Structures
1.
Amino acid sequence: MLAQSCYKDSGGSLRALLHKRSVWLTAIGWLAGNVVVLAVAGDALPFDWPAAASRTPVGHLVDANLALAEVLLLTVLTYRLTRSRTPLDLAHRAPERSVAAAETLFLLLYGAAGLGLGFVLARLAGWHPFGLHLAGSIYGTHDHVSPAESIAWATYNLVVYAVVPLLFFRRRYSAEALNLRSSDRRADTVLIGVVLVIESLVQIAVLAPGIFELSPGQLLLGAPLTFTLYLAGAVLPAMIFIYAILVPRFLRLTGSTVATVIFGGLTYTALHIWDAWTVFTSPGNAVLSVVFLLLTYFAPGMFKTVLTVRTGNAWVHVWAYHALAPHTLIDAPHMVHVFHLK
């Protein structure tokens, strides 16, 4: 009964979605974030964003809203491509409600502790705090990032958010219960291919990534290096912590795919709290930092959740919408610079 309810909820009509309080609250929150930026930012944002230094606050808002529109279109496309698949009993991959609630609370506290420890350890070493992104990811940075910091960041995140949670939960739950096994490899492959091509073309058209300016030697070394480091430091940690473990528990606790997608987006955003560009030196800057964390990561985090809920396979988002595009595509020039590749 719960599985049928969740699947019906996930595949409901637009009219049904518009009647959900969670959708309205999310829309109001998104609009409020836009208003806050217009009211607080003034003529410039306080962030170190070399890759987007010429954009005004209004321009950044336009970018964020266009990115949201793309995510919504990709979500519609994902529903169309998966509409004929057998409904998945994703909620029942989690334990009973009381156990799921305890495990979810434990995971959220554990994740917060991981962020806190990552801040302390990185600062003691003279580095940027360890969050889900290495300093300089996507937006670039004028700060120096060393090879040692990059490797330590990837190692810390892999151990804390992927290896330890996976070892703990894999002893108690099957690979299927943790969304680690495909129920339809052919359908998953088609979905991955379609989303990856569209997202790559959008990234290339909108961001004009510097990967195409690298020399053949830099590309030969930099692309696999970027793929490996970001797979370890960002992709697998998010996959295991959120999409393998937390998503089924969100679904079990809420009984709603819509609420689960929203919570997935919020959790994904929270893991980026230490992005190197955030500024917490004043109340205004702190507010702008939180708002732009949401404007940057909430929609992608929701779409990663959609891919997981619709396929029951946490690996789908890894290949369709994370490891290759955007990270390898966008961040390869950053890794070439960090490791001084010739």
Note: The radius of gyration is 20 Å.
2.
Amino acid sequence: MIDGSGCDFVLYENPVSIFYLTRVSLSSGMLIQRKQEKKLFVDGRYWGAAKKIFDHTELMTDENIFRFLSKENKGRLRIGFESDFCSYDRVEELRKKFSSLLNNVEFIPLSRLLEQSRMYKTSEEISLMKEAASIAYRGYQHVQKLLCPGISEKEAAWAFESFCRKHGADALSFEPIVAFGEHSAYPHHLPTDRLLKKEDGVLFDCGVKYCHYCSDMTRMFFLEKAPKVLLECYEIVKKAFYSGLQQGRIGRSIRDIDEAVHRVIREYGYEQQFLHSTGHGIGLEIHEPPRINAQKEDATISLQKNMVFTIEPGIYLEGMGGVRYEDTVYMTAKGIESFYPKDYERNG
């Protein structure tokens, strides 16, 4: 993290970054890294618990911070910070604080600091994400059994959350997207009091956190009389998903997956109705690199073992409804594997 940055120290305040580097969970704190040495500074609320997890923990006092920073006795001290997390006001606050401790301090903005390492999951991380996926999938199956005319989107969303929390989830990865009928035309629809009708399609996008790691999946459910065009679109979307899945080989690129998915949807004339990226990385946060989008800077990234991301093609017809199919998948030496049962070859 420090090598190549030109910095003497790197300062982390994003709780996600701090957890990744120390396994300490907190809402506020300061981790300062010098070469291979890291020091975590916390206030009294976290001192006892943090010390048990991360040995190099001290109380956040000016004296303790100064002592650590004084290990570099240069004329000018260069401190890197997470520019995609720290606000301008916060940087100015830090500048004043640190300048009161040391005579000559320069703050260097560093973006996407941990992206490279977080993109590749350890076997432990993958195991935790598999459990998060299992809990969410069982929650989806539970709600699927409850779906009948008269239930509301909000009731379905609450049934999912309640089931998952009872069965091991620490939290939701995001507010569940439960969309009935015409509401499913909006990719990020939030549940309402809208009641389910027998002719509706149901779009269900959900995920939970387990030991800090996220899951994410989307399925469709049709009752008695789903519109024929939506059923046809759902088959197209699943075909596009499977096409992207087949591109998942070590050494191929993010672009290969994205283009394979778009090729299928374009073939059926629905590319203008595909309103979002093909997928995204996932881990401690619901959206992480790599972005599965041929138009973004991650497009040339080579697929490597233990990368974890989603594939989620969709088609959205305003006024009628939309369809989406999404799995969280991971790269193995043999290709892509899903965290979920292989139900993409039949109706969701």
Note: The first strand starts at residue 9 and ends at 12.
3.
Amino acid sequence: MNMYPERVLEIASGIREMKIRGAGRIARATAEALKIAALSYNGVEDLVLFKKYMVEVGELLISTRPTAISLPNTVVYVLSSLRNSSSFSEARESVVKRADNFIRESEEATKRISLIGAKRIKENSIVLTHCHSTAAVGVIIEAYKQGRVVRVYSTETRPFYQGRVTYTQLAKSGVPVVQIPDSAVRYIINEVDYVVVGADTVTSNGAVVNKIGTSQVALAAKEARTRVYVAAESYKFSPLTLIGELVTIEYRSPEEIVSREWIEKHPRVKVLNPVFDVTPPEYIDAIITEYGVIPPQAAVLILVEKLGWALDVLGYSEGKLDLKRIVAL
């Protein structure tokens, strides 16, 4: 029996425990884990057995976080290459090549989004951002370099305080940034010219699933007539929503919000800890992708025209992604 490489298990654990955060970082870590698994395979050099092994690794990775579509999209992209492999060596080489391609294209996509998004921000603007997104931070930093941003408000983003990561990265690049509690967004929203956030999933109708609190930020922005931009690579668009599947909203332990001691002292109090919420398309002015700027209603075009690889090999059975069908087992 071929055991999972220790590094693959470390990556899976890191994603599950939120040591690896952000849809882009999760996607690239997933691709890296699949590559490591392929290179470390030490079982019988048989095509069918190798496919089964890679499917198991893919299922392990997908199970770590149920909401971020970048994770299963990455697995589908990398493992779909196995469909046309005719030998063990060809199959392993195809997984490694696809994983490397994904990582490279993901990083290039973020750079393109930064350049495209910066042009959408006018000079002397004040920006607000929520949580942490490599794509959103890239847009803001590039806009600052071009003299378009004079100040940024960054929410703390409780309970994991991802906003502090955003604060640190912006400050390191010289961007004037002010950290605020999540609850202060409406208080300062009238000062803000643009809201720039990332996405964990974009649905076929243009709704955006992102860190909890994003929808409240967007609602406050709509009330104040402040533009809301979502920076999202194409692999964050969900092919599953084209066939009517709803996005699963992840709930995590109440102990991330309050201590176990507090819970034990208040046994009749139920504590909810949803990680994401859904921002409807009517609260979003534009989605900035590596292919250009689109209205949220055009999200379906990205799915059909740019993610054709996913639709062609999409294996879907009884409400679950079927990796066996994807790799033609």
Note: The chain has a mean pLDDT of 91.
